[in-house]
């Protein structure tokens, strides 16, 4: 018994130490970026400068310069529009598709499932050049300039590339729900669409929130596709890259870190808002006899 108790204590100590080390490795860099974003440039340069020292004053002008000179406000708006549109398109397509694939039997269902699962193994970075060439050919074919530097098309590509993972995750959740919920809805006179929207989708809220968070992170931070397809309507990742290149050359580190904060802050706010839903159980309750 004593050996078992000692083993349990050592195991708990190991777990707590590992979690504490992981938390420190995440919190310290994030806190340092926020702290550096409100420092004057003189606090970064010099032999006697301590990079871990607290700011001497709250120099918020770094954010003003980042938004005014580097047009971070315009890039931020583009990212908001693209990310929101991509999330809406993704959910509109993925929710009915995953529900149908997981709850109904029909011809071609296995082939569709196999196709979506195969999409999990395709890295979109490998096909970004073919996508660019197809859109360029479409511009030449129709004598227009709307297929490139188009925020809606960028959002559509984002949503399309995340369909396999989203359908896989949502389908796995829908399969765990008892069929009694649907049967009760059909008895009450609900059709397939109303059953999906009023009964099944609300029950899938934890899984949907997980999809929204992961997809938001991917869309918000994506750079390669946006850099390849966009020009004047670039996203925040492109604006941050340009800002870092310019300010690093000019040794304006405070402005560079202010740009990093602009990119990080929406992600942190979203995570704080949905962390409770992410940690709660995938299903709550069940059928009573």
Describe, in plain words, how this protein is organized in 3D.
With 289 residues, the protein is mainly alpha-helical. The chain has a single domain (63-279), classed as MetI-like (MetI-like fold), CATH 1.10.3720. The chain is built from 12 helices and no strands. The protein has helices at residues 2-36, 61-68, 72-103, 109-119, 128-142, 151-176, 180-187, 192-203, 205-221, 224-229, 236-249, 253-279. Helix 2 (61-68) packs across helix 12, helix 3 (72-103) runs parallel beside helix 6 (151-176) and helix 3 (72-103) packs antiparallel against helix 9 (205-221). The longest helix has 35 residues, at 2-36. Mean pLDDT is 85; it is low at 281-289.
Topology of this structure?
Layout: H1 2-36, H2 61-68, H3 72-103, H4 109-119, H5 128-142, H6 151-176, H7 180-187, H8 192-203, H9 205-221, H10 224-229, H11 236-249, H12 253-279
Helix pairs in contact: 2-12, 3-6, 3-9, 3-11, 4-6, 6-9, 7-8, 9-12, 11-12
Task: From the structure above, extract its key features.
single chain; 289 residues; mainly alpha; MetI-like fold; 73% helix; 0% strand; disordered C terminus
Mean pLDDT: 85
Under CATH, the topology is which?
MetI-like fold
What is the level 1 CATH name? Answer: Mainly Alpha
Using only C-alpha atoms, the radius of gyration works out to 24 Å
- Count of DSSP E strands? 0
Please work out how many helical segments DSSP would assign.
Answer: 12
Give the CATH architecture.
Orthogonal Bundle
Secondary-structure element order, as H and E?
HHHHHHHHHHHH
Number of domains: 1
Structural class based on helices, strands and sheet pairing: mainly alpha
Shape: globular
Strand content: under 5%
The level of helicity is over 70%
Largest sheet: none
Taking pLDDT < 50 over at least 5 consecutive residues as the criterion, the unreliable ranges are 281-289
Give the distance, in angstroms, between the N- and C-terminal Cα atoms.
Answer: 42 Å
Per CATH, the superfamily is MetI-like
Membrane topology: Multi-pass membrane protein
Subcellular location: Cell membrane
Family: Belongs to the binding-protein-dependent transport system permease family.
Main location: membrane
């Amino acid at each position: 018994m004593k050996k078992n108790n000692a083993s349990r204590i050592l195991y708990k100590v190991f777990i707590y130490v590992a979690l504490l080390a992981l938390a420190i490795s995440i919190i310290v860099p994030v806190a340092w970026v926020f702290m550096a974003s409100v420092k004057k440039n003189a606090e970064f340069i010099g032999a006697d400068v301590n990079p871990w020292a607290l700011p001497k004053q709250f120099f918020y002008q770094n954010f003003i310069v980042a938004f005014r000179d580097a047009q971070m406000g315009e890039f931020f708006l583009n990212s908001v529009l693209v990310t929101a549109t991509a999330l809406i398109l993704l959910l509109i397509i993925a929710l009915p598709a995953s529900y149908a694939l997981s709850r109904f039997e029909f011809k071609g269902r296995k082939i569709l499932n196999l196709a979506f699962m195969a999409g999990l193994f395709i890295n979109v970075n490998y096909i970004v050049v073919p996508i660019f060439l197809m859109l360029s050919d479409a511009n030449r074919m129709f004598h227009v300039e709307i297929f490139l530097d188009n925020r809606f098309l960028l959002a559509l590509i984002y949503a399309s590339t995340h369909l396999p993972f989203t359908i896989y995750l949502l389908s796995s959740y829908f399969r765990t729900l008892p069929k009694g919920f649907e049967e009760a809805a059909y008895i009450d006179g609900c059709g397939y669409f109303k059953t999906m929207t009023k009964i099944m989708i609300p029950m899938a809220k934890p899984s949907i929130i997980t999809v929204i968070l992961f997809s938001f992170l991917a869309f918000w931070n994506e750079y390669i596709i946006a850099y390849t397809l966009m020009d004047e309507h670039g996203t925040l990742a492109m604006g941050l890259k340009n800002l870092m290149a310019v300010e690093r050359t000019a040794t304006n580190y405070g402005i560079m870190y202010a740009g990093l904060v602009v990119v990080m802050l929406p992600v942190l706010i979203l995570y704080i808002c949905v962390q409770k839903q992410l940690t709660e159980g995938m299903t709550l309750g069940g059928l009573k006899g």
